[in-house]
Amino acid sequence: MDREDKFKNIIIYSKNTVIGTALEYLCQPQSGCDVYVTRICDIATLFETLSVKSVDLIIIDGAPRCHFSLVFNLRAKWPTLPLMATQSYFLFSDRMMQEYFGHLILKEYDALLAGFPNISAAEHVGIAFAGSEWAGCQRASLAEISPEVVLIELNQWLRQRLAGVIISSKARAVAIDLLAQGYTPTEAGRLIGRSHKVIYHHRQAIKKCLGLNNFAMELIPSLTFSDACNVTATVPERDCSRSCTAGSESK
After folding, report:
1. How far is CA 53 from CA 38, 46, 148, 209, in A?
2. How many domains does the chain have?
3. Residue 12 lies in a domain
4. How many CB atoms lie within 10 A of CB 225?
């Protein structure tokens, strides 16, 4: 089966009409193969649609780090449903969401535009999911686990992976336990009994290791997860035997 045949039924979740329309256009393959795209702008409609329609791919216009509950609920019900997140750029916490939940590809807008029309948005997913490394490292099933427990595990995973990026344990402690909690270098230095100059030294090392362009704006989002939407109350009960899996046809 060709890559473009795997993703015929696509949902785009975007609250931005302009970007959502552009993503819909980028989903159309050059071959002219029929692709059915549904644009949705609210969570309730998204899960209502998933409850009655088989879907091959969901494109989430937003950073995964800001949509923990959304990704969690999707993974709890449909563990292997391919997801694509689109954004101008991604941070360390987005990559940790990708690694933890699995079957999630991160694509910057520029990368999608650069590949089109030779490679449609859906074909990017087909290329990425060709390997087994996209399975994720979370538990086999999230259906019986609370989001609070998963969030704890996700933060533990972030700390573990951060050790491979920021070698200095002192710099990691400063990053996670102080600066990411909102303390200024002066306040952080006072708390650990060190000069603020030491904190600034760690700050520069952290900025370089994480590839941050704007430390003040990007550090906390790089090391934390939040919710742009609370989906707990909007997820309908569903017979999971009608799972949304890649290769299924539209109902």
Report:
1. 11, 10, 29, 43
2. 2
3. yes
4. 23
Helix (H) or strand (E) holding 36: strand 36-40
pLDDT, tens digit (0-9, with 9 covering 90-100), for 212-240: 989 889 999 999 998 755 655 455 554 43
> If you search the block for the tokens 């299924």, which residue do you land on?
248
Q: Cβ(136)–Cβ(201) under 8 Å?
A: no
Contacting residues for 67 by C-beta, under 8 A, at least 6 apart: 60, 85, 227, 228, 229
Whether 174 and 87 share a structural domain: no
pLDDT at 246 over 50: no
**211/129 Cα distance (integer angstroms):** 26
Q: Assign residue 168 the CATH number of its domain.
A: 1.10.10
Number of residues that make up the chain = 251
**Which three-class secondary structure state does DSSP give residue 89?**
coil
- Quote the domain boundaries for residue 200: 147-223
